[in-house]
Each structure stands twice: as C-alpha cells, then as structure tokens.
Amino acid sequence: MSHQPLAIYLQDKHSIRDEFEFARYAEQRGFDAIWQADTRLARDCVSMMGALAALTTRVKIGSGVLPFWPRNVATLAATYSTLWEMSNGRIICGLGAWWEPITSKVGIKRVKPLQAMREYVTVLRKLFAHEVVTWHSEFINLDEVQLDIIHGDTRPRPIPIYIGATGDKMLELTGEIADGAVLNYMVSPAYIRAAIQHLRAGATRAGRAFDALDRPELIVVSMDKDRAKALDLARELLVQYLGQEPHIMKASGVSQELLDQVHAVLTWPTTKEKVDQAMHLVPDDIVQMVTASGTPNECVDKVKEYIAAGCTCPIMYSLQDDVRQLIDVMAEAFPRT
Prior knowledge:
single chain; alpha/beta
C-alpha cells in the first residue's frame, strides 16, 4: 500500500549543522523529500542543497523556491545540472518570482512575472534536455547556448520544474507548464481548495492531465503540549508575513484592516522589537486558520485538513528547536508502509 508523502522544510531558524541532522533523521524515518528555502537574504538554497545531496542518499531535494530574477537562465541550468549530478538525480528545481519590496531594494525591476516565468521554465527545459538554444525575448537572450557537458554523465537532465505560485494567474500558468506547484504557507485550507481549481484550469487549457501535477505545500507547524506556547511561536512568524508579504495573507482572506495595522508597525527589513510590538494584533483564530499550531494531535489534524484540500505532500516547517519531534509525530501519524 502506498504511503502519504511527507517532507520537511529548512529555512533559517535553526543552525545549519542542526538542519543537516534533521535532514538525515527525516530520511531515516522514511520522509520523502527535503525542501530548502531561499529565504529573504538569509540563506542561499543552492549551497544548502549541495550539502544535503552529499549528506543523504534517498530523499528528493527541492528548492523552495529559488528566485530567478537575479540569475541568467544558462547559469541557472548549469547550477541545477550540477546539483542533479551531486544527488544522483534527486533534485527538484523550484522557482519563484520573488516579492516586493525586496526586488526593488536590490535593484531588480520585477515586471511581467508571468511572462518571465514562462520564458525561464521553457528555456530551462530545453537546456536540461541538452538542446542548443537560441532565444531572444524581453527576459532571455541566448545565442546557440548548450550545457557544456563533455566529461562524466552527459545524459540529458530530467529535472522536474516546480513553480512557487500564490496568485490566481501564476497558479494557472503552473498548471499549464510546470511539473508541480509549490503551494505557499501561511494560507488556509480554503485557499488551497481554490488554488487547486486554478491549477486545474491551467492544466485543462494546456490539454494536460491534472492528476500528473504534483502539489506539495509548505505548512508551518508549531507543536507543543502547551497549546498557548505553540500559538505564540507561530504568531511571531505569522506577524512578519502579515507585514512583509501581504499578498500571501490576502490570499487566505485576512482582512485589509489587520494587514494595515501590522504594516504600520513593521515591513522589510524589520527588527525583533517591531515583531514583538505587532504580535498582539493577531488573534488566535487567524494563527490557527493559516498554520498547523497547537498540541501534536491538533497539528496532525490540521495537516490532514490541508491534504484533504488538495495538497499531495505536506512540506512541514517546524518552529520548534528540535525538528525531530515533528518528524516522529508525523511518521507515526502517516505510517511509512
């Protein structure tokens, strides 16, 4: 009997050495994937994915998600080709269109993200297949470019491409052209159900089989026997997203009034003091609407709710200091047989 796929999400809360241990432990407990964030300007996912490839033998390793704007598509293809070799074919290329205000603050004009994403995915596929690519458009300019692989494994790279999609149009594009959608966290199960319909619409428009589209979802998990402690820990992260990435929160139906109140206190970049100042604005019901927070049983039930809404694989981001607690609880809740 097939099991429910499970994954963990590594971001920047824990030390890198601890994250390595958590990745090894997740593989030992039968988890299926490790997804590494390319988070804000804290950690680079490519460096981490290379290390994770060397430390593990079975799990898939995905970028969740790498912004394509700062990267030339040819060097991006070479990067994932290298990771594919390092991992013996276990790499997933997860791409995102980044967000404001970070793009403008680093000097990047984030324009026409749908067109840019379509071009990057299309050209990456050609480069992964070892095609000689000539392409001239608004975002990509290549003249007879090919991955220059002469030694070692010269096969085409069948690297799956996933899109980190939140908005309706990006979700539809994902259903149309990608191998999978990395569904965002800090969203509600109701949002996931609506997102599934947009993914389906895109797949239908392209004549693709919707069931072949993988739909993993990032899920924040704050687990503690002390329910209030778990909720406060999730609230601390949630308030940062309310202030810094309101597009995610709008997708889940958080009121504009609450967004404005939080945004008045903090934006990007922020400080611990501002986060603490804004936390009291966020009620418990909002925390539990968009995260899996509370006792272990409550967290398992919430993850099951996301799966029922259409998530094919929960990618769980533990806010606890020791992620092994989450790994153990979920491995027992979803047996690996």
